Q: What sequence folds into this?
């Protein structure tokens, strides 16, 4: 993936496996990018009999920062000859401080291990979901248990163009971003690439329920027409991708297209599981230009069902609600 210049690696509060850091270093080296290790420590709360900035709380806060700075230096030391690497420790709420670092330094990729809250039946915790909703640049959540290269990558795209005209081009651009990153990763990782679009004919169940006097032939014709449009759009996206990467890379990659009938929130996680995919590349914003709508309900429902690494991409022009001042 030769496109990044400023990569941010978020060091876990309870770091253990270093394989994800190794991947971040290798990616920075390949891209000749700068790599920043970010540690976030909690703000020490004011307690009974103590006030913020007082000697006891001030000493404790300073110790937490110093301890994290020492640990980040320890992590960075083996890699300083390979990449330009720096460390930064900040105080505050993790997802807010990660986004502020992105805004301050113009980072173009964030790499992080998922929280993996053991008491929840899902991979991503609340901090992860906040980042998936609000981080303005691509966010790569990598499972620390992953060893070696990715073997199976799924690119989830939305080729439905039954949207207002001002939204269609934004969705096309997001699909292109997803395909660009997924194909680049699949080639560099020698992975199988699967491109999936789930489609559902709007209103089919209403017609079949008897609420409308529609005969079976007309229903079938409607469903087939929707499928035809989606298939054509998916094939057009695949052709543009093939034109971009060239015939030689295409012969090697042999991408597989999946047009699956059903709700995306159900069919995409099911396909990911059937394929044994270890990475999903997908867009995470449903619509642009609408204040407060940060992540589509479908995208979030899919994410909460996945148990593999995720590369989440925002559309061009997305503005995070987190600012340097707020």
A:
């Amino acid at each position: 993936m030769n496109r990044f210049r400023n990569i941010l690696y978020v060091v876990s509060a309870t770091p253990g496996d270093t394989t994800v850091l190794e991947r971040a270093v290798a990616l920075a080296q390949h891209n000749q990018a700068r790599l920043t290790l970010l540690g976030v420590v909690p703000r020490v709360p004011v307690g009974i009999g103590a006030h913020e900035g007082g000697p006891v709380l001030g000493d404790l806060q300073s110790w937490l920062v110093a301890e994290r700075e020492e640990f980040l230096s320890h992590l960075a030391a083996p890699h300083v000859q390979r990449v330009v690497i720096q460390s930064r420790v900040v105080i505050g709420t993790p997802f807010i401080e990660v986004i502020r670092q992105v805004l301050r330094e113009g980072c173009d990729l964030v790499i992080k291990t998922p929280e993996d809250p053991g008491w929840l039946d899902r991979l991503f915790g609340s901090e992860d979901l906040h980042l998936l909703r609000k981080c303005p640049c691509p966010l790569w959540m990598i499972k620390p248990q992953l060893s070696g290269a990715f073997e199976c990558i799924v690119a989830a795209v939305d080729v439905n163009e039954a949207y207002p005209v001002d939204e269609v081009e934004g969705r096309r651009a997001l699909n292109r971003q997803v395909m660009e990153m997924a194909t680049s990763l699949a080639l560099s990782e020698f992975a199988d690439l699967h491109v999936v679009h789930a489609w559902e004919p709007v209103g089919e169940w209403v017609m079949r329920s008897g609420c409308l006097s529609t005969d079976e032939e007309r229903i079938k014709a409607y469903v087939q027409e929707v499928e035809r449009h989606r298939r054509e759009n998916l094939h057009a996206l695949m052709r543009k991708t093939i034109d971009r990467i060239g015939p030689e890379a295409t012969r090697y990659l042999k991408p597989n297209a999946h047009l699956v009938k059903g709700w995306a929130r159900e069919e995409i996680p099911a396909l990911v599981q059937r394929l044994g995919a270890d990475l999903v590349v997908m867009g995470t914003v449903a619509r642009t230009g609408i204040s407060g709508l940060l992540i589509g309900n479908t995208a979030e429902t899919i994410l909460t069902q996945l148990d593999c690494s995720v590369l989440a991409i925002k559309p061009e022009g997305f503005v995070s609600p987190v600012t340097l001042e707020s």
User: Anything to note?
Assistant: Confidence is low (pLDDT under 50) at residues 288-294. The two ends are 33 Å apart (CA to CA).
